[in-house]
TrEMBL record:
Gene3D superfamilies: Divalent-metal-dependent TIM barrel enzymes. The lineage of its organism: Bacteria, Pseudomonadati, Pseudomonadota, Alphaproteobacteria, Rhodobacterales. This is L-rhamnose catabolism isomerase. Residues 93-287 form the Xylose isomerase-like TIM barrel domain. PANTHER family: L-RHAMNOSE ISOMERASE. GO terms for molecular function: isomerase activity; metal ion binding. Keywords: Isomerase, Manganese, Metal-binding. SUPFAM superfamilies: Xylose isomerase-like. InterPro entries: L-rhamnose_isomerase, L_rhamnose_iso, Xyl_isomerase-like_sf, Xyl_isomerase-like_TIM-brl.
Length: 424
């Protein structure tokens, strides 16, 4: 998909500058007592999953403007994900959405293997009605007032587990659109009781080596209340269910200015952080590219993660979850994967002993300066060298454009005519 000679040409063009920058950064970090090789090894080992739905062009409630050469089906989506991984070497797993990505397991496995990809968490969908679905989710799914509708939603989640088992997945992510638009529309307690009862039935059928992730979101599609509205409710769910249940944090699913890194710290402290859906936002669940708006916030989230490394049972799942309305999704996802790697590298530069010392001495300036010193470091040469050494691109966007991948697939993939909204 990306010819090796083109990748080699592109890397060759960038190599002299990279070598010089890497050497200079190595000397700078050495003065701070940091071994650049150790940071590079951490970055090389860091991986983030890509959502299958991320490689299609997204949209808003108003419209969707299809892009050139959009994937027609899951096999095209896997190819696009393969390009992202080939160039970044950071995204070896794809997260599927059922029923959008339904296909014979053997075919999915074969295609993924050909591309050097595996399968991350399975995502169920009870926030829209599917053709031929007997009962509607208009008024909810796992929390619906009607027992048969709840049973249908439970059954769908069990099917997602079954499909995931055939693919080698080890987790199910449940996000529901359930909620209300009007005060008094539902009894808030009874609605949550119904949800808990339904999600317990899913949890009871979870394979022993699987994890169940529940994802909170404060509003949208419901606008007065959602059933799983915040991290507190999410924590209660994970606590009620048991040891295999964890909370997923989607960065866009909070009120503006919420201290997300503190939520992350709390969930880590109580052993319930399941993982992340990375994206960025200015106002709401904007699903913008990771670190495009608030890179310092992402760094602060990773500061909590790096501080918790080595804690027993600490193994959060990392995934991108974005909607690309005005960019080539492959370029956005490559850059976003690199941004989470960058945040990880930067957080790894924090001098933990110095930070703790400043905290114990109540020296606020020294503490915050330690954070800023790490954040201000340009670690791009580390990321680029880690990619190059793993067979990827020094500059993935440059290599991708040089290879002309989008034009090539546009010639065989007709422009998608799917209209309407496209929050995907
Ligand atoms: Mn999400």
């Amino acid at each position: 998909m990306i010819p090796q000679d083109i990748l080699a040409q592109d890397n060759e063009a960038h190599l002299p500058a990279l070598k010089a920058d890497y050497e200079a950064l190595g000397a700078h970090l050495a003065r701070r007592g940091i071994d650049i090789g150790a940071i590079k090894a951490k970055v090389a080992a860091y991986k983030v999953a890509v959502p299958s739905w991320g490689v299609g062009t997204g949209g808003t409630r108003f419209a969707r403007f299809p892009g050139e050469g959009e994937p027609r089906h899951i096999f095209d989506k896997l190819e696009d994900c393969g390009v992202i991984h080939a160039l970044t070497r950071a995204t070896p797993a794809v997260s599927l959405h059922i029923p959008w990505d339904k296909a014979p397991a053997a075919d999915l496995r074969a295609k993924a293997e050909e591309l050097g990809l595996g399968f991350d968490a399975m995502n169920s969908n009870t926030f829209q009605d599917q053709p031929q679905q007997p009962l509607s989710y208009k008024y909810g799914s796992l929390s619906h007032t009607d027992a048969a509708t709840r049973a249908q939603a439970v059954e769908h989640n069990l099917e997602c587990i079954e499909i995931g088992q055939a693919l080698g997945s080890k987790a199910l992510t449940v996000w529901i659109g359930d909620g209300t638009n009007f005060p008094g529309q539902q009894d808030l307690t009874r609605q949550f009781e119904r949800y808990l009862d339904a999600v317990r039935q899913i949890y009871a059928r979870l394979p022993a080596d699987w994890r169940l992730f529940t994802e909170h979101k404060m509003y949208e599609p419901a606008f007065y209340s959602t059933v799983v509205q915040d991290w507190g409710t999410n924590y209660l769910i994970a606590k009620e269910l048991g040891d295999k249940a964890f909370c997923l944090v989607d960065l866009g699913h909070h009120a503006p200015n919420t201290n997300i890194e503190q939520i992350v710290a709390r969930l880590i402290q109580f052993g319930k952080l399941g993982g992340f859906h990375f994206n960025d936002s200015k106002y709401g669940d904007d699903d913008l590219d990771t670190a495009s708006i608030a890179p310092y916030r992402l760094f602060l989230v990773f500061n909590e993660l790096v501080a918790a490394e080595g804690k027993p049972g600490f193994d959060p799942a990392h995934m991108l979850d974005q909607s690309h309305n005005v960019t080539d999704p492959i370029e956005s996802l490559m850059l976003s994967a690199m941004e989470v790697q960058r945040a990880y590298a930067l957080a790894s530069l924090v001098d933990r002993a110095a930070l703790t010392g400043a905290q114990e001495a109540n020296d606020a300036i020294a503490a915050t300066q330690e954070m800023k010193r790490a954040f201000r470091t340009d670690v791009e040469p580390i990321l680029a060298m880690a990619r190059l050494e793993q067979g990827g691109a020094i500059d993935p966007v440059s290599a991708y454009r040089r290879a002309g991948y989008r034009a090539k697939v546009a010639a065989v993939r007709p422009r998608s005519v799917a209209g309407g909204g496209g929050i995907v």
